[in-house]
């Protein structure tokens, strides 16, 4: 535990707040989205601005503490609040400034996608971002960032123009294609390994009304519909993203296909029509809607504080056999209340960037597969985790060796290497340069000591 004199000395230069374990508000401040996380950091510095971030990193160096960085607090491993570390909490730094003429936005490191969409949509603009509004822009972008616009406009990180970063030694710098370009490369897929990003500058695109909504089918038609979905979605124009999710809805287990078309509406109607007329759905809500409507479709489902199990990979072969295995594993003893296997639609612009051009290596992937469990009661943990493992095991033969760093749980070093893929050694060199003491180690960590 840190001495109270030291804590007191640290409070003085801050514009924001410091929470030590004795302080009121500490328990609230250490809570993250995943209710399974119960880490007790040595101190939490809720920063009011860049100066506080610099000060907090100075405290960590002085006390020899590892640093956790909190953006939106959605990371499933709870890395935003590392046990015994010093948390640089950016949750009070959420401003978003839009430049409608240049079609850019600069957002602080604690902003959420809800904050971001709210500000950019006032100008009819958007960029690829998370599909649940409470997710942080920071963690999501630093790991790559998939979202409904990814096939048209690339990953969130592909739309990053620059980032302001405070490095482990307390230096403030800007990273872009023109300045600190190697760091800029690493920030686009390398996770939170290199420093605290205090603000992100994004390229924006005109996105107003989209054709979007859900098509829900009973589970007994899931295999047939997934075969159709695969053939239809793999040939679709970039304006379409369609995710197919097996889940437990109010009607029982179903296949839920969420569609978002961000192009010209009439063409979208034509593209979506074959899916709509393939087999009578239980529900069809597809209609022209403002973009924030589709961004909010899952808000109620993803309530903070639930317990989470995630396991994910990229589809290698989306064969009939893969569909059989995935649907059968889901149908076998689905535990309630929220179990899902989501097939997310990649490709398009995501794949037109070379794997070595940004730190996000998995450019070839056409679909991501995410096994997801959420539950409330700790007593249900082992049943839920066992179900998740079984489903992932069934899907695994059809997945490639890679992993999406933002969907990774605590899965060991081999999986972390798989997540950074062919870019691992270059990222390790960057880590040695910017964080040789591995101060930022609460993340999908690239240890600075990695031997090339
Ligand atoms: C409900 C839900 C929905 C999701 N939807 C999507 C989705 O649509 N698309 C997608 O791609 N992913 C999605 N994810 C995964 C998401 O990308 C990761 O959980 C990501 O880490 C969230 O970022 P955050 O800032 O909220 O996380 P945090 O938990 O705050 O941070 C996670 C890690 O990111 C790093 N980090 C965070 N902020 C900073 C910063 N400012 N500077 C440096 N490092 C930082 C740190 O290493 C930190 O440990 C979702 C997750 C959840 C729980």
Automatic annotation (TrEMBL):
Cofactor requirement: FAD
Entries under Pfam families matching the protein: BBE, FAD_binding_4
Record domain FAD-binding PCMH-type: where: 37-207
Domain of life according to the entry: Bacteria
Swiss-Prot/TrEMBL keywords: FAD, Flavoprotein, Oxidoreductase
Molecular-function annotations in GO: FAD binding; oxidoreductase activity
Family to which the UniProt record says this protein belongs: Belongs to the oxygen-dependent FAD-linked oxidoreductase family.
Annotated protein name in UniProt: FAD-binding oxidoreductase
Species annotation: Halomonas nitroreducens
